[in-house]
Amino acid sequence: MAIRVVREDGDEILRKKSRVVEVIDDKIRELLEDMVDTMHKYNGVGLSAVQVGILKRLVVIDLYDDKGPIKLVNPVIIKTKGEQEVEEGCLSFPNQYAKIIRPEEVIVEALDENGNPVKIKAKGLLAQAICHEVDHLEGILFVDNMIPGTLQYVEPNTDK
Predict the structure, then answer these.
(1) Which residues, 6 or more positions from 6, have their beta carbon under 8 angstroms from its beta carbon?
(2) Residue closest to 56 by CA, chosen among 79, 89, 23
(3) Strands, DSSP E only, in the chain?
(4) Which tops the pLDDT comparison, 157 or 146?
């Protein structure tokens, strides 16, 4: 597939609300594959379509476990439980991290890449990633919800 350009902080599209996907066709499936490839290239845990410049409600997440990537079309968080303080980064904010409060558990409903309904009960890192990516679909960035004073820039490791 193809590696897409990740939109970074300051790009106006990151503040826009994404549109519902009406038809899941080969173009959408190809975009989801490209998003997975792009996320993997940059060692991300999640990526939303808006981050590659497309205002569609599409999200991919990979915890790099034996389950492989999760592809969600039109995800909606229907329930949250508890809270966790986590350190979070974003591919649209390279080398920047901040502490943020996220739900400990979430339930999300969506469609898979074939249009089948899915419901995921997520905890910990998966719950955090789902919340982060669904926020992107609403034009909300992690820096909007960070604990004040916790944003840090970390020098990239350039060792090859």
Answers:
(1) 38, 42, 47, 51, 52, 91, 92
(2) 23
(3) 46-48, 58-61, 70-81, 84-90, 93-102, 105-111, 117-123, 152-153
(4) 146
- Which token pair is 69? 């990537």
Chain segment 54-108, per-residue pLDDT in tens:
999 999 999 999 999 999 999 999 999 999 999 999 999 999 999 999 999 999 9
Domains of the chain: 12-153 (3.90.45.10)
Q: Are the C-beta atoms of 146 and 24 separated by less than 8 Å?
A: no
**Using alpha carbons only, what angle is made at residue 52 by residues 51 and 53, rounded to the nearest 5 degrees?**
90
| Beta carbons within 8 Å of 82's beta carbon, 6+ residues apart | 103, 104, 105
Q: Catalytic residues, which ones?
A: 133
With a pLDDT cut of 90, the percent of the chain lying above it is 95
**Could you tell me which residues come within 8 angstroms of residue 139 by beta carbon, excluding any fewer than 6 positions away?**
14, 15, 16, 17, 18, 50
Give the per-residue pLDDT at 114.
97
pLDDT higher than threshold 90 for residue 157: no
Nearest to 56 by CA among 102, 109, 13: 13
Pairwise CA distance, residues 85 & 147, whole Å: 9
